[in-house]
Amino acid sequence: MTVTTPAGFRSAGITVGLKTSGKPDLALVVNDGPAPASAVVFTSNRAQANPILWSRKVAQNGAARAVILNSGGANCFTGDFGYETTRLTAEAVARELASEPQGPVPADVRDDRAERVLVCSTGLIGTGDQSFRDKIVNGVPGLVAALAADDTTAPGAILTTDSVEKTAVHEGDGWTIGAMAKGAGMLAPGLATMLVVITTDAKLDSAALDAALRRATGVSFDRLDSDGCMSTNDQVTLLASGASGVTPDENEFAAALAGVCDSLAAQLQADAEGASHDIDIEVRGAASVDDAVEVARSVARNNLFKAAIFGNDPNWGRVLAAIGTTDAAFDPYAVDVSFNGVRLCHAGAPDRPVEECDLTPRKTHVEIELFAGTFAATVRTNDLTHDYVHENSAYSS
Amino acid sequence: MTVTTPAGFRSAGITVGLKTSGKPDLALVVNDGPAPASAVVFTSNRAQANPILWSRKVAQNGAARAVILNSGGANCFTGDFGYETTRLTAEAVARELASEPQGPVPADVRDDRAERVLVCSTGLIGTGDQSFRDKIVNGVPGLVAALAADDTTAPGAILTTDSVEKTAVHEGDGWTIGAMAKGAGMLAPGLATMLVVITTDAKLDSAALDAALRRATGVSFDRLDSDGCMSTNDQVTLLASGASGVTPDENEFAAALAGVCDSLAAQLQADAEGASHDIDIEVRGAASVDDAVEVARSVARNNLFKAAIFGNDPNWGRVLAAIGTTDAAFDPYAVDVSFNGVRLCHAGAPDRPVEECDLTPRKTHVEIELFAGTFAATVRTNDLTHDYVHENSAYSS
Questions:
Q1: A183-219 per-position pLDDT tens digit
Q2: Which residues of this protein are annotated with the site description Involved in the stabilization of negative charge on the oxyanion by the formation of the oxyanion hole (chains A, B) (predicted)?
Q3: What's the gap in Å between the CA of B141 and the closest CA on chain A?
Q4: Measured torsion, CA atoms of residues A353, A358, A362, A367, in degrees rounded to the nearest 10
């Protein structure tokens, strides 16, 4: 179980024919309370899909009742027709939930209006025609009928080019967190990322959830930069049911949530399209956390560096060429650069022989010591490989 | 002829053993006046090679007497030893020029001090040991002895992974411009680019040359962004001899210089490492030129877009996802996107069928109409290919 591990949630995943592969492509997570609350963060890309435009409004309406997610089409840049598809999807979910003969959700908090239903879509931009709409809207009754408190099918129904399901669970003291995620390409979040649904039975209000969620995503998904390409459909949804009756310490909950997000980010990195190395770029001795992130990201986005790692070449010169393009405070001729624990550059000159460095393991650690302060940050990225090019060119689609 | 097409210049290219291939690797261009003047622009990368650190000082000393260029090693991040190598190189050139029994340069303008000798290096970062120094310094006498006013060997001696020589000539009214360039990777200039030497026999002072050069590079090399990776060794040198005795109209000269730089930028694009498409990203209807360049560059640096072009896939969704990350003034749901003349996206929704678009030609044109103003700019880039990954991973080195 994943998003249904915490009490108070049901989920389902079914196949409605959006994917040519015939795999599951429509998922639903429902919050049955008794004390529903929610928080959502969205992509900071100005080009936003219709489900993002819709869900931004829903997020302002109070606790979300449910989130429906489809793969097999992003419904992005599909015009007014696409927005109407999203609205009709939410409406269908609301209608079906309202018609449930008797749900576990208490009558006094139950709000089955479409304005309480978040929508997420993922897939090809520009996809969202009449057939797409029909398959989703007509699939909703079956989806709601399949809802179960011990469901295991939802995580699979949100995948696109992902090769594995991504889930995480945290057991607190009397409360739990469950989560599922998808994402394998266009992985360079800004304030949010990919499609993620996190549930908890902790009893927390939406403001507390929001603070904890922004804190967690800021140091996890925001520091995952697989290919520098920010998506139009990123959304992270956090739903709390209050079913445990326990209100955890705020810091304890925030730390647990950050741990769950960090685990999902690592799973996303490990499944990035075509990658052969998971690279953690750790910047230390920075004058600020922002500087550390900027420096690390400049390396994470440098194609020459990424291609060198693919070739198991510890090319520290490309690291220095990359960080030299930033505005961060440091002296480029004073930094140290280490690959997998071997210091290859010291004080602006070659140090240990590159032959001492073994880059054959998939897990790769690059450490950059700036000698400019006491702050640090790590950005996760991947190498640039033949398979990445192949999977993202038309040859694979 | 190229840099020696204008009167008042000699050049040479020889082999001193820096390249394992045994190809020519050391070049020299000498300005014999009679009215020498010069202007230089440098990489804006804060990580700068020793020859850049040296040449920045030379550029402040008045008209440069000569520029010596080596391939086979960048002499970047090689510490104080590397800087001393650069100084010794300039000193050797100065000494040999001073000892020429009788040169064509008039005695009253002849300045053979090392402080008048620009140095450029290109190759692997971190390369610049004792052997590197010895080969260059010991090679200078033979290089100076090989100087000729009808030389054709210099352009070949500055190449690294380039497959062809890059040269350009402009014939003015009584004056000429000649130029040579190298560059095939790490092509994302900021204020300058690659190694370029441009000569002219026009009679212009250094201030006029500087103004014309910055104007020309700003709309040519600065808008070439093959792989988003800025080099540590970029330098564009413009030398004027005054040998024609003609002082051209300032605007006419600036336009001619811009044409030469534009031709070289196109040649660099066409020879970019592993590329199979030369992509011109034209942004129109922008609120400012800066906006147009920012929008175009966001597409030029988007790996998913670049991989799609490699696969002949007119993936306009990735264009919109890329431009949505910029701060430029426009409505993402109002733009038009065309590939090779076929409008695939109109007003935030799909327009013509992608099947109408043929991306098999190497030359690719992407037009983005922002409907936000009257300004336009074009950024040149390349696709992301298997060969790019191969050439830049250790497998090829």
A1: 876 666 554 457 888 999 999 999 999 999 989 888 8
A2: 122-123
A3: 29
A4: -40
